[in-house]
Amino acid sequence: MDISLIHINIMPYHASSLPLVKLVNNGKVCAPRIRNLLGDREASITPKQTHPTSLRFSWRISSSFSSATESRPIMEDEMKKMERFDSDSAASLLKELRGTFASGKTKSYEWRVQQLKNMIKMIDDNERAIMEALQQDLAKPRFESFVSEISLTKAACNHALKELKHWMKPEKAKTAITTFPSSAEIVSEPFGIVLIISAWNYPFLLSLDPVVGAIAAGNSVVLKPSEISPATSSLLAKLLEDYLDSSAVRVVEGAVAETTALLEQKWDKILYTGNGKVGRIVMAAAAKHLTPVILELGGKSPVVVDSNVNLKVSARRIAAGKWGCNNGQACIAPDYIITTKAYAPTLIDGLKNILEEFFGKDPLESKDLSRIVNSNHFSRLAKLLDEDKVSGKIVHGGQRDETRLMIAPTILLDVPEDSLIMNEEIFGPLLPIITVDKVEDSFDIIKSRSKPLAAYLFTSSKKLEKEFVENISAGGMLINDTVVHLTNPSLPFGGVGESGIGSYHGKFSFDAFSHKKAVLYRSLYGDAPVRYPPYTPGKLRILRAILDGSIIGAILALIGFGKKKLE
């Protein structure tokens, strides 16, 4: 047979948790389960219909089947297995992974190191494919893809490899007189089976950075990439299957139905990156099983700009953190600026000059600006701009191209506090500027809102720096720059309050996916009868002295002296 045409109705995810279909730009398909049935063939794919949770595809296999392949017809039960990923599929997956974890494989130093090395090789071997997937999902510039996704993921792997032996070593702890003689330590042990639900805006970094920590800590992992960035999701599924140990690390692609099936299971820890609405759903599902969670959410991250700053450097760093980070589609991107009424015109002129320097006179034609991820988010941002009380406040930008999902960097001045744009996370290229009489008045505005994921201050005043750090609560804080605190593995990354629960990065990632087990060692010698019945006034006097930390009192009580308190 030279040509075979197969019509199949499928869900994008199947019981083995490996992606059924993996698309790349040239229209080729790599389907592991189909390969198992038809042999290792390339197949062109034509979608017959598209649905959020189901697809109908036609495969035209353009190679002659061997007699061995022809002797393996596609069985009905095999096709049914590929049709959907449901709660039973999720339970089966967890059972398999728990078997792997119970074997002790993932706990060994050698296994952890090998997986991290394999991940680095995976990135090096597929850098071009990673950039192409990010371009397809977000039109993300290659420079930005490398700097903010590829290099940071590799840095996390390399840092973990360098420090892992030290991280795994038990930490010595002090002992108390009540357990003398003894020794104590804190042992880091993996939680077990970890679920990581990642976000669409940095779909490579935010998927793999937590996986690095989970593997370094010795866990088995299920990664659920975001369906909103489908090219990267599909690529991740293929790459992790090809490079990592599939008996311990799996990818489940999907949307609401698949995520729901996963959340119905009992996990040992869950990390979710996304918005607060879904974060509450994740936390509620985890609470049914008393599963601990890390929630990396977001919020409205403020930038306070004093009038005594270097304007060009400050404007450049604000613009890079806002529009140079996925065109504002970043959880730590500046959400709004607060500055004085007197300094606002100067700051706006500085930002305008930098924006033209960065993206040219027509930013919609710039190759260095990401597009909006999809039409739903484009409409959401357009709604923020088109609100009656906001539309007249635009002082720069505002251009849009709905066909290409492009919105130009946009600056707004003095939008009302009760406007939509000031009451939800913007997550896009719109930047309102709020003015106050004195820069110190900005503190009250920030504190009147939910605690943000990040807070930024530009000033040359050490006094104002100190007051900002002491009075403003945020997940992270940066003075005289934006977003780059994310790159420091010695700092935890996470929110507070509605901007998130828990943190990770570097050693904090290892700790996030490790249970800190307290271990006390004692010998069978030196047993003190004072702790055992029958209880006597003399024993109580000795224990009082010991627990009060009085060695002399304990000695006196032993020889029959000392103060006699009410027994």
From TrEMBL:
Active site residues according to the UniProt entry: 296
Keyword Transmembrane: yes
Entries under CDD domains matching the protein: ALDH_F3FHI
GO molecular-function terms, A-Z: aldehyde dehydrogenase (NAD+) activity
Keywords: Membrane, NAD, Oxidoreductase, Transmembrane, Transmembrane helix
One Pfam family linked to the record: Aldedh
Ranges where the Aldehyde dehydrogenase domain occurs: 67-519
EC number of this enzyme: 1.2.1.3
InterPro entries: Ald_DH/histidinol_DH, Ald_DH_C, Ald_DH_CS_GLU, Ald_DH_N, Aldehyde_DH_dom, Aldehyde_DH_NAD(P)
Transmembrane domains' residue ranges: 542-561
Top-level lineage group: Eukaryota
Catalytic activity: an aldehyde + NAD(+) + H2O = a carboxylate + NADH + 2 H(+)
GO biological process: aldehyde metabolic process; response to abscisic acid
Similarity comment: Belongs to the aldehyde dehydrogenase family.
Protein name stated in the entry: aldehyde dehydrogenase (NAD(+))
